[in-house]
């Protein structure tokens, strides 16, 4: 279990994809999603102990708290709560699949979005389900994570034709159709980073 490696990979990927994420948010939001997440994950790398000695659950709780404090907008509290819930679950001895489920439930509870609302839930919910199913089938954690990452990527791609029902993009009504959701896109990046590092 290497939460620090995951968080560093998140920071790297978010920085690399910052302009793309902000571009997606320019189309149906306020053009700050890449900048918001980059600020948050850079703070995590700069301010937290991400070494392998630290307890993974505690690292994720600290990272989540930092995202809530430093990232403005909708995505900070949502991703922050997700990391905090995931960290708490791991600290209590949960396996990664259960911890991921807790993270996704935290987002669903706070944002009150369901699949089809054109939000990060469209990537996160299929990822948690794919992971749980893979574990149920007795598949190892690496393959289970790869399936989760693919499910998240497919879920993010599927947001393009949707009409947004939550968040800023929902103000656009039918004009939100035909644009990929920035938060679903970043969520797929974070799950892929998890699969690459855990
Ligand atoms: P803001 O919209 O406040 O500028 P960001 O641009 O950082 O925040 O994040 C926007 C993303 O947040 C959206 O693309 C969407 O995926 C996600 N989002 C917004 N509202 C919700 C919600 N209620 N539930 C889940 N995700 C949401
Ligand atoms: Mg925005
Ligand atoms: Mg904003």
From TrEMBL:
GO terms for molecular function: glycerone kinase activity. One of its GO terms (cellular component) is cytosol. Residues 1-196 form the DhaL domain. InterPro entries: DhaK_L_YcgS (IPR012737), DhaL_dom (IPR004007), DhaL_dom_sf (IPR036117), Dihydroxyacetone_Kinase (IPR050861). PROSITE patterns: DHAL. Keywords: Kinase, Transferase. Its EC number is 2.7.1.-. GO terms for biological process: glycerol catabolic process. Gene3D superfamilies: 1.25.40.340. This is Dihydroxyacetone kinase-like protein. It comes from Nonomuraea soli.
């Amino acid at each position: 279990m290497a939460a620090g490696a995951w968080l560093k990979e998140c920071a790297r990927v978010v920085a690399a994809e910052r302009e793309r994420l902000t571009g997606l948010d320019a189309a149906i939001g306020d053009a700050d999603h890449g900048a918001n997440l980059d600020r948050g994950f850079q703070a995590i790398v700069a301010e937290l102990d991400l070494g392998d000695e630290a307890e993974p659950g505690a690292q994720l709780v600290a990272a989540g708290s930092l995202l809530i404090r430093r990232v403005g907008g909708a995505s900070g509290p949502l991703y922050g709560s997700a990391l905090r819930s995931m960290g708490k679950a791991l600290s209590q001895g949960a396996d990664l699949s259960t911890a991921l489920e807790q993270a996704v439930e935290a987002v669903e509870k706070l944002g009150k979005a369901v699949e089809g609302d054109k939000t990060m839930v469209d990537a996160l919910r299929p990822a948690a389900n794919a992971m749980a199913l893979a574990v149920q089938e007795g598949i190892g954690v690496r393959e289970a994570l790869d399936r989760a990452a693919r499910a998240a990527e497919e879920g993010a791609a599927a947001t393009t034709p949707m009409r947004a029902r939550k968040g800023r993009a929902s103000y656009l009504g039918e004009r939100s159709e035909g644009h990929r959701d920035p938060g679903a896109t970043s969520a797929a990046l974070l799950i892929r980073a998890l699969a690459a590092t855990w």
